[in-house]
What we know:
306 residues, 49% helix
Amino acid sequence: MHKGLLLFLFCFLSWFSNAQELNARVRVVDNQIPTTIDRKIFRTLEASLTTFLNNRRWSADNFKQNEKINCQILINLEGMGEPNVFSASITIQAARPVYSTSYVSPIINFKDPNFDFKYIESQPMEFNENRISGSDPLVSNLTAVMAYYAYIIVGFDYESFSLRGGNPYFQKALNIVNNAPDASKISGWKSFENNNRNRYWLTENLINNRYTVIHDVYYNYYRKGMDYLYENEAGARTEVMNSLVYLDNLNRETPNLMIVQFFMLGKADELINLFKKAPPQEKTKVVDILSRLDVTNSNKYKQELR
């Protein structure tokens, strides 16, 4: 083969291998599925979804290996109705590195209880963002949900590095919501489902101009706060505190907003460790705010920070 062609192929393959954004690990928990079902199908599902997430490009940018977004997807199979039709929950976890440290900060830690899909072993993982719903909605729902969360993960990662940087990806997630597969067993895509706690409402909160302060919250918390911990811990805490104040104000103006609770998921230990060294007055202020924002962990904040 001509040396020039070899060089071109090498460069192309190097570019392609570094292009993808996600370093995802997918695990399928099948304990609740009858033992008469061959477990090989679930291992094949894990491998197929991992390939789908990691080998597909979700943005126009090229990510180097060390820039890829580390994330975990846990699919807990909770039942099986018709052959190859499963009811499940899906938990999405993603983190991003903190500048000049070995620490990674959680950016998503969310459990979605509404994941029904159909999977036949070795079926191709097809997804077309311009034609999301195929001939079988339950088959389409598998890749639609995975693609939706891929865009959400990428969006929040961009959001944490540049102000409103996630908007193009949240718009793509909204496109999936608007064109989602529709069938009686499928839920999580509609405004009237799940008490305003589903894929529709997460995207609505991110796109709605009334809640634009949430983008400032993410950017300030990570880029202006956490990324300066090594350089100026007190200054970093101040920026994190400002983010929490913005979030608290939003929560007071619009109580029970999904995006507020979404932000707080998985943050308790990080915030406690961050404010343990704060002056007493600062601790008192942050405990008051966190007790309103994260009611589930309010006692934990009071015990650890007072």
